[in-house]
Amino acid sequence: MLRYLPIRKIHARQVLDSRGNPTVEVEVTVGEGVIGINGYTARAMVPSGASTGKFEAVELRDQEKDKYLGLGVEKAVQNVNTKIAEAVLGENALNQMYIDQILQYTDGTDNKGNLGANATLGVSMAVARASAMAMRIPLYQYLGGCHASRLPVPMMNILNGGCHADNTVDLQEFMIMPLGTDCFPEALRMSAEIYQHLKCILRQRNMNTGVGDEGGFAPDVKDSRQVLELIMEAIEKSGYQPGKEIGIAIDAAASELYDEERGVYVFPGESQMTGEEVLRDSGEMIHYYQTLAQDFPVVSLEDGLHEDDWEGWKNLTKALGSHLQLVGDDLFVTNIKRLGCGIRLDAANAILIKVNQIGTVTEALDAVEMAHRAGYRSVISHRSGETEDPFIADLAVATGAGQIKTGAPCRSERNVKYNQLLRIHEHLGGLAIYQNPFS
Predict the structure, then answer these.
(1) Could you report the per-residue pLDDT of 270-283, keeping only the tens digit for each?
(2) Which residue numbers are catalytic?
(3) DSSP secondary structure string, 48-101?
(4) What letter would DSSP give residue 378?
(5) N or C: which end of the chain has fewer CB within 10 A?
(6) Which pLDDT tens digit goes with each residue over 324-378?
(7) Residue 71 to residues 58, 59, 304: CA-CA distances in angstroms?
(8) Segment holding 258, helix H or strand E
(9) Are 406 and 392 a contacting pair, CB within 8 Å?
């Protein structure tokens, strides 16, 4: 019989994320006795994105312009402390799927538009963590079971552009992936060394070494080719072999570049640097990525086309899918309905998993399971507006995703995830698995 671990108390508050914007923090107390006796209290903080797909679950904001420029989350906090608390108090915290179903039912919409996905997710995450505490097992084991042992390969964002930085780099993220090692600590060391070498190279060329939202450097650069040349130089100066030991991943965030009226992708940074407007249509974008992948060791491309261009995604997958990981972020938004469409249409071959895109832990796990059953890879991801909560590190191991995006080895809201993965590696000992997801 399932053990009964009642939810005794729920409390939410407004706190700040890594960009200085408000977000929701939830505390959940579970236990079979009086609160404070045989009870366990866990806390969860909800991340927030800057480059967001229009199909994401609703992030409820107060829209009061005189408070936090309208970005306050007191309404979401109030929803947790009233409607959600009323619905889940006394329920069994160990039945995560049922708790998440209650959250969905209480909201009553497909996109969490009533309560806010930032309200439901905070409760969902905190319930999972409190249950793991009560069972006295690590969160990754609670969510993933006794076979959860695979550490993810970092997609480490070392140069920021797009919505994540105020510079001329049009594509949003340029990442390195340490593929040529067999353990996570070594992978982290290799990546951090490349990051530091890139900083030295930028300094030598009198380029800006300030960082963007996710900790990657944010210099003004002529175009994506020059960005990749800088990264190649940093890899080689670190003593590693591009393509063999280190792969490169790109997040184009193409929806942010797309001009719906003209039906083209506008490259404002490249236009500024060349002195003439640079435009590309869907076919030209595919050719653009082909040339970059031919000339550089690119192994993964995320959001290469905008979120509504299913036909373009089919063409992109046909052209590059056999030798490149094509990740749908804005395309799929961690939603099994949209992922199902992609699988049927043979669009993309991987999904990015962001828990706040969908609003509950169970729905995120469902998306990973659907992807893996269809032969798609999955990548667990942070958001540009992050917190000190390391939840996604445990989630990456729990799901066996094999890949994680959580920024540069810079800024504590990014490093807290890497440091948690180091702890998990140590906890697993000889059972820890680290492997190239493309081998």
Answers:
(1) 999 989 999 999 99
(2) 214, 354
(3) B-SS--TTSPP------TTSGGGT--HHHHHHIIIIIHHHHTTSBTT-HHHHHH
(4) E
(5) N
(6) 999 999 999 999 999 999 999 999 999 999 999 999 999 999 999 999 999 999 9
(7) 13, 10, 29
(8) strand 258-259
(9) yes
